# Entry
Amino acid sequence: MTTSFQPVTVDEDFDVNSGSSYSYTRTVHLGPYTVQMRVQRSIRPHDSWAVAEILSADLTWTALAHTHSDRWFEHTTEPYGVNAKDELNEIADDLIRRVIAIIPSNTTVPQQTLDVIGALLSHTYGSTGERVITADDMRWAKEHGGPFRLLQRQDGSVLLTKAHRYDCPLLATAGAQVCDGLCVPVPPTAVPGGSTP
Ligand SMILES: [Zn+2]
# Structure
């Protein structure tokens, strides 16, 4: 897949210290990535900076790209009565374009998921099985049967199912309760082994 992720803005913030500096921060989701652009414009170029950072697995920010203030300082206004977002928006936009060019544009599927899909394919179509899944196949599967669920079980096995309703106890409890065969939700007051009205 070569299509680039589209940035979805999830947070924005800006601040003005009149006579001293102003700043703008924008956080976006880019597919599986969380990226923030931080731009600060001070009185002097060497105190002004623009950086894009990516949220790492350990929830720390790692710098991905900088835009040196030489390239934008002269085009921004002094820190008096300024709208920080309007003034620094374009610098953040430019950083996002650069981030999109830097990060991988396809989603990485975890190895365990690949192993499970491989086992399912072999089980259904044999050890040399092959199958193209079209957009229509996926649409049809969503419109028929129950929701697709992958349930990790105690013994290390994985249950792949479309056999149950959304509110079935099996799905609602991620496999902790069994299905009665009718996918009937357990009322909150029900006592295990109690009489059924
Ligand atoms: Zn069920």
User: Anything to note?
Assistant: Helices lie at 84-102, 111-125, 135-143, 169-172. The beta strands are 7-17, 21-30, 33-42, 49-55, 61-66, 149-152, 158-161. The mean pLDDT is 88. The radius of gyration is 26 Å.
